[in-house]
C-alpha cells in the first residue's frame, strides 16, 4: 500500500501560487452534528448538518510585492471571497492526486509572528463559504 509523503504540494490562494512559501497544510472537512435523539431510542441518534470546511496553511512570511502579505492583507481588509486550492503533488489532477478547493473568506490574519532570530511564519485558517468545498480527481 502506498504512503503519501508531502514534498511538492501545490497551494493556490486567490490565483497566486504559494507552494514555495507554505510548509504545512491541513484540509478539514466537517459537518455539524445535529442531535435527533428521541424518547423511543436506547441511545443517542445523530444527523449530519451543515458543512464547516476549512484550509489551514502555514506561510513563511514575505512582504515583497506579489508575495504573502501583499496578497493576504487586502483579502482580510476587504473581506473579499476568493478560491483556495491544494493538490498533494505538482502532477496532473487524478484519482491519486486530487485537488481540493473552495471559495473562502479570510477572517483572521497575523501578518507578523516570530521570535528574534527565527523565521517569521503565520498560520492562516481559510473557512470555506457555503457549500463550495470540492474534491476533484478527474483528469
User: What coarse outline follows from CA principal-axis ratios?
Assistant: globular
Strand order of the largest sheet: 2-1-7-8-10
Separate helix tally: 1
Helix and strand run: EEEEEEHEEEE
Q: Low-confidence stretches at least 5 residues in length (pLDDT < 50)?
A: none
Q: In which range does the helix fraction lie? A: under 10%
Give the number of DSSP strands. 10
Largest sheet: number of strands, sense, barrel closure: 5 strands, antiparallel
- The average pLDDT value, as a whole number, equals 96
Number of structurally distinct domains? 1
Radius of gyration: 18 Å
Distance between the termini: 22 Å
Structural class by helix and strand composition: mainly beta
Note the beta-strand portion.
35-45%
Task: Set down the secondary structure blueprint.
Elements: E1 10-13, E2 16-17, E3 22-28, E4 31-35, E5 46-51, E6 54-60, H1 68-77, E7 81-87, E8 99-105, E9 121-127, E10 134-136
Antiparallel strand pairs: 1-2, 1-7, 3-6, 4-5, 6-9, 7-8, 8-10
Verbal overview:
The chain has 139 residues and is mostly beta strands. The chain is built from one helix and ten strands, in the order E-E-E-E-E-E-H-E-E-E-E. The protein has one helix at 68-77, and strands spanning 10-13, 16-17, 22-28, 31-35, 46-51, 54-60, 81-87, 99-105, 121-127, 134-136. Strand 1 and strand 2 form a beta hairpin. The longest helix has 10 residues, at 68-77. The radius of gyration is 18 Å and the shape is globular.
Amino acid at each position: 500500500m502506498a504512503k503519501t509523503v508531502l514534498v511538492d504540494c501545490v497551494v493556490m490562494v486567490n490565483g497566486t501560487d504559494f507552494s514555495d512559501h507554505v510548509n504545512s497544510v491541513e484540509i478539514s472537512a466537517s459537518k455539524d452534528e445535529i442531535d435527533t435523539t428521541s424518547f423511543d431510542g436506547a441511545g443517542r441518534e445523530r444527523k449530519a448538518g451543515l458543512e464547516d470546511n476549512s484550509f489551514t496553511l502555514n506561510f513563511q512570511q514575505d512582504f515583497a510585492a506579489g508575495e504573502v502579505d501583499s496578497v493576504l492583507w487586502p483579502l482580510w481588509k476587504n473581506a473579499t471571497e476568493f478560491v483556495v486550492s491544494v493538490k498533494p503533488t505538482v502532477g496532473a489532477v487524478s484519482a491519486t492526486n486530487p485537488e481540493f478547493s473552495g471559495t473562502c473568506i479570510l477572517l483572521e490574519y497575523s501578518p507578523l509572528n516570530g521570535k528574534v532570530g527565527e523565521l517569521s511564519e503565520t498560520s492562516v485558517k481559510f473557512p470555506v463559504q457555503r457549500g463550495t468545498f470540492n474534491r476533484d480527481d478527474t483528469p
